[in-house]
Amino acid sequence: MTTQPLLVVRGLHTVFHNEEGAWPAVSGVDLSIQPGEIVGLVGESGSGKSVTGFSIFGLIDPPGEVIAGEVLFKGQNLRDLSEEQMRRLRGNRIAMIFQDPLMTLNPVLRIEEQMLEAIQTHASVPRAQALKRCCEALEMVGIPSPETRLRSYPHEFSGGMRQRVAIAIAMINQPELIICDEPTTALDVTIQGQILFHMQEICRTHGTALVWITHDLGVIAELADQVAVMYAGKIVESGPVSGVLDAPAHPYTRGLLDSLPSAIQPGQRLRQISGMAPSLSNRPSGCAFQPRCAHALAQCAISEPELTTVNQRTYRCFAPLVALRTST
Amino acid sequence: MSDSTPPIIELRNVHKRFVKKQDLIQRAFQLVGKTPEPRTVYAVNGVSLAIQPGEVLGLVGESGCGKSTLGRVVAGLHRQTEGELLYQGAAVAQLDRKEKLAYTLGVQMVFQDPQASLNPRQQLHQILGEALHVHRLAPADDVPARIDQALAEVGLAAEYRVRLPHQLSGGQRQRVGIARALMVSPKFLVCDEPVAALDVSIQAQVINLFMDLRAQHGLTYLFISHDLGVVRHISDRVAIMYLGKIVEIASTADIFGRANHPYTQALIAEVPNPERRKRVFVPISGEIPSPLTPPSGCTFHPRCPHAMARCREEVPQLEAVAPDHWSACHLNHTVA
User: Fold this and answer.
1) Is the pLDDT of residue B2 over 80?
2) Does A270 contact B270 at a Cβ distance shorter than 8 Å?
3) Which residues have C-beta within 8 Å of that of residue A184, sequence separation ≥ 6?
4) DSSP code string of A165-189
5) Residue A1 has pLDDT above 70, yes or no
6) Among A205, B106, B108, B212, which is least packed by CB within 10 angstroms?
7) Which domain holds residue B112?
8) Average pLDDT, stretch A20-38?
9) Residue B302 lies in a domain
10) Residues near A190 by Cβ (< 8 Å), separated by ≥ 6?
11) Residue B323 contacts by C-beta under 8 Å, 6 or more apart in sequence?
12) For testing the chain A interface, which of B62, B195, B201, B251 should be mutated: the one with the most A CBs within 10 Å?
């Protein structure tokens, strides 16, 4: 029954240095992903969700630094690997898709060169055979007439098409894990629907696991198996999507769901979360959410709630909204 | 006073085209007597609609459909290429100086990106007070009080008056953008994606602010957004735009309950819904075509699952399918 998880993140701490010291962007994140599983990482801007993705992928550059924690990919700690060994994994066994595909595609190279590079960096494949794989990959993400499109430059594609190319490149070596950092945020809903359709298909046929970083709870609900909600650099709640979104234990998760227009009758005032997320330099004492929390106790301002695990669900809260039972 | 008040804003068959300037080669061709077809973007392509005082009209569409251009025409930032814009029943193009000023001040705009629409070198009191000074709307002594009042209305403390835009968060900056629009006591706000750049929890705060301001000042909104969830929440009526045309317009309840146009139906189906679990995505195919070369007939036909031969040839007209429910689709004429 228990398969070995594909990726385990334990106690990840990432800080950003400046003249005044080290500011914690991610402070103690734990994640576990099974092969073929889709895990949603949800949070607002500045919650540390993207930095978590970058830390797993080993892309934190100075002034940022991963100062503690383990990133175990199939049991191997990625933090122990040399840059050369990481390079062999990246784009091969682990891939990443970014929000802005213009940032990831080289504007002066044809798509063809960029896709071939992704294949031939990791294996010696004859050009003809590699080109065939490129075509298949483009077809898989729904790009019509891939043979001619391979000869195009990134600027000749629309935003949605560019993101498909980025996904095709990420998929080309059939990685076991793809980290997706807001890949559909900049796209229209009909295009987002198409991309989600292809991603779902790819995961099903190849058994690829996804970390899907987003602020859109709607997308997570429809796509993911597991969800982790981040606030101020910590995962405040995690578990299976149906459990967490149907009956959230943490007041922040509840607040996020309630502030969506779909949570209430049209025309009524939305149930907003008052205040705003704390900045890196100004984290409140105790629970970071306590100044905005309607359920805060005296204790919440003094000490920080530890991670409570019940069944498959975890939360950090002294006053959870639902009582989770230990046995089902 | 006549017993029927005219709509606050009315558009009659408004077109907005952007024509690319001729480059050197094209001018050279012209010299030898050959005039090449100028490249024209058909951003808004024959839009007629009327917005009643106190109403919130949501305008929805994907990027490139011309919804922002339409909003800018309404706010007077673009002059329409063809057609008429009426403010309180009078054609804007024929207004005299004084009436023109009443229109300019009466219709204000809130932009998507408050970072780009606020001067980074001006303190908030300069940003907010500028219109009052320029138009001499208030004696100089009253201006600070008016600024404080506007800040209070959008939920910012009076000490923010000396802040610079970069010292504010995204949500606070959007509040300043709204306060600036309110300074000249407008009747009508064109809100162009005002919450698209904001986080979920902040978005809720700003939407609530829009609803409070409407109740307090009796404002009318043209609320432009690609987010159907937000539009459904705030609007009385919704217009769906596709490639420069309005394809469906109806009350919010009708649009979301009985959508008529296949495009509206597709859009509504694609809105991510936190209530839905593990959906199998079956998306609508294709992308929005380029407004440089719009398809013939119904512009939606290349993506439409119900397209017929007629759709490729004939442009469907906006027609009433139910009381106050208008849709432009040939399917309404086929016998079921």
Assistant:
1) no
2) no
3) A163, A191, A192, A195, A196, A214, A219
4) HHHHHHHTT--SEEEEESTTTTS-H
5) no
6) A205
7) 9-321+329-333
8) 90
9) yes
10) B62, B266, B267, B270, B283, B284, B287
11) none
12) B201
Reading the block at residue B135, the tokens are: 């138009």
Query: Under a CB-based contact definition with an 8 Å cutoff, are residues B162 and B135 in contact?
Result: no
Q: Does any domain span residue B4?
A: no
Nearby residues of A172 by Cβ (< 8 Å), 6 or more positions away: A115, A118, A119, A133, A134, A137
B170: which strand partners? none
Is residue B33, in this structure, part of any structural domain at all?
Answer: yes
Interface confidence (ipTM) of the complex = 0.78
Question: If you search the block for the tokens 């040939």, which residue do you land on?
Answer: B330
Give the model confidence (pLDDT) of B107-159 as tens digits.
999 988 777 889 999 999 999 999 999 988 888 889 999 999 999 989 888 88
What ranges make up the beta strands (E) of chain A? 7-18, 21-33, 38-42, 64-73, 76-77, 94-97, 177-181, 209-214, 226-231, 234-240, 308-310, 313-315
Cα distance between residue B49 and residue A319, in whole Å: 52
DSSP B178: H
A205 near B CB under 8 A? no
Total residues belonging to chain A: 328
Structure tokens at A35: 């092969």
Report the sign of the C-alpha dihedral through residues B312, B315, B320, B324, in that order. Answer: positive
- Please identify among residues 111-140 of chain A the ones whose CB lies closer than 8 Å to any CB of chain B: none
Whole-number mean pLDDT of chain B? 88
Which of A44, A255, A266 has the CB atom closest to B232's CB atom?
Answer: A266
CA distances from B75 to B72, B103, B105, B194 (A): 5, 9, 10, 15
Q: Whole-angstrom Cα distance, residue A169 to residue A173?
A: 8
Q: Is A303 left (phi over 0), alpha (psi -120 to 50) or beta?
A: beta
Report the CATH number that the domain containing residue B237 is assigned in CATH: 3.40.50.300
Concatenating the DSSP letter of every residue in B322-335 gives ETTEEE--GGGGS-
- Is B65 among the domain residues? yes
Question: What is the mean pLDDT of the segment spanning B324-332?
Answer: 92
CA distance B98 to chain A (A): 36
Task: Specify the number of domains making up chain B.
Answer: 1
- CA separation for the pair A68, A83 (Å, rounded): 18
N- to C-terminal Cα distance for chain A?
18
**Partner residue opposite A160 with nearest CB, options B169, B273, B287:** B287
